[in-house]
């Protein structure tokens, strides 16, 4: 398993996937406070062009809350890019037949699955908190993160939502034979969760609730509103991994 984890690291490094994703999440981390910092200048620039139409703009006071608002707006894009880049993690192995030699030499299929899943979860965690950390440091430098409530709990909830999506990515990677099937399956589950979240009575019990971090930061709701969604997300992660392990044992490589 250690050898397979090393192999995953070498593959990510040599294909440039690690560098691309690190750059993407770094740019997002910098862009969140940068856009907030530029807001007064943008509003001032727009005010000159809008004055002829009779529209006036008020002075904007920038706070860390505006930067965190950008963070939660950009989060789905970052997650989407991660899923797109990793959708072929398993299926590329099937197409090239690279798993057959290691399986025939005695490497357990469960360890192969565990190594790939652990690597995906680990990379998502590292990249997510890289983006979060950059935004946090810049916000602390320019403004004050103290005006936000439940900042780290909200960040943990959003991270858990990403882990939930990746669990389905792993599951559909085992069931499917191509990257397009993996993307359709994972995207379909996320879309169903989004649609069901439009119904207030069941929204609190869906993993999609975990993406509503700004409500925690503004203290509009308490932490207890997110416990059910977090428990469901965690339970579904375990179910997905169990289903993936059972199916991978019977998968024709």
What does this structure look like?
With 253 residues, this protein is mainly α. The protein is built from eleven helices and no strands. Helix 2 crosses helix 3, helix 3 packs parallel to helix 7 and helix 6 packs antiparallel against helix 7. The radius of gyration is 21 Å and the shape is globular. It starts with a helix and ends with a helix. The model has no long low-confidence stretch (mean pLDDT 86).
Summarize the structure.
The chain is mainly alpha-helical. It has eleven helices and no strands.
Relevant terms:
253 residues, mainly alpha, 11 helices
Task: Report the structural category.
Answer: mainly alpha
Shape: globular
Share of helix, binned: over 70%
Assembly annotation? single chain
- Mean model confidence by pLDDT: 86
Counting DSSP E segments of at least 2 residues, the number of strands comes to 0
Main beta sheet strand tally, sense and closure = none
Q: Could you give the order of the helices and strands?
A: HHHHHHHHHHH
Give the number of helices: 11
Low-confidence stretches: none
Distance between the termini: 18 Å
């Amino acid at each position: 398993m250690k050898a397979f984890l090393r192999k995953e690291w070498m593959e990510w490094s040599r294909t440039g996937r690690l560098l691309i994703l690190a750059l993407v999440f770094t740019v997002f981390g910098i862009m969140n406070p940068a856009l907030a910092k530029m807001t007064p200048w943008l509003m001032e620039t727009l005010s000159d062009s809008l004055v002829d139409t009779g529209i006036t703009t008020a002075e904007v006071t920038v706070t860390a809350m505006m930067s965190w608002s950008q963070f939660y707006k950009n989060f789905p894009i970052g997650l989407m890019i991660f899923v797109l880049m990793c959708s072929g993690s398993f299926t590329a192995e099937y197409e090239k037949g690279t798993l057959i030699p290691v399986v025939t030499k005695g490497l357990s299929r469960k360890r192969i699955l565990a190594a790939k899943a652990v690597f995906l979860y680990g990379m998502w965690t590292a990249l997510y908190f890289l983006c979060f950390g950059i935004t946090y440091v810049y916000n602390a430098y320019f403004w004050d993160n103290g005006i936000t409530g439940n900042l780290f709990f909200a960040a943990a909830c959003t991270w858990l939502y990403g882990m939930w999506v990746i669990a389905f990515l792993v599951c559909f990677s085992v069931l499917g034979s191509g990257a397009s099937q993996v993307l359709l399956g994972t995207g379909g589950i996320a879309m169903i969760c989004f649609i069901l979240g439009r119904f207030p009575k069941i929204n609190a019990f869906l993993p999609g609730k975990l993406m509503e971090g700004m409500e925690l930061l503004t203290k509009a709701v308490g932490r207890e509103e997110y416990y059910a969604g977090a428990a469901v997300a965690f339970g579904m992660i375990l179910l997905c991994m169990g289903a993936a392990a059972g199916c991978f044992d019977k998968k024709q490589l």
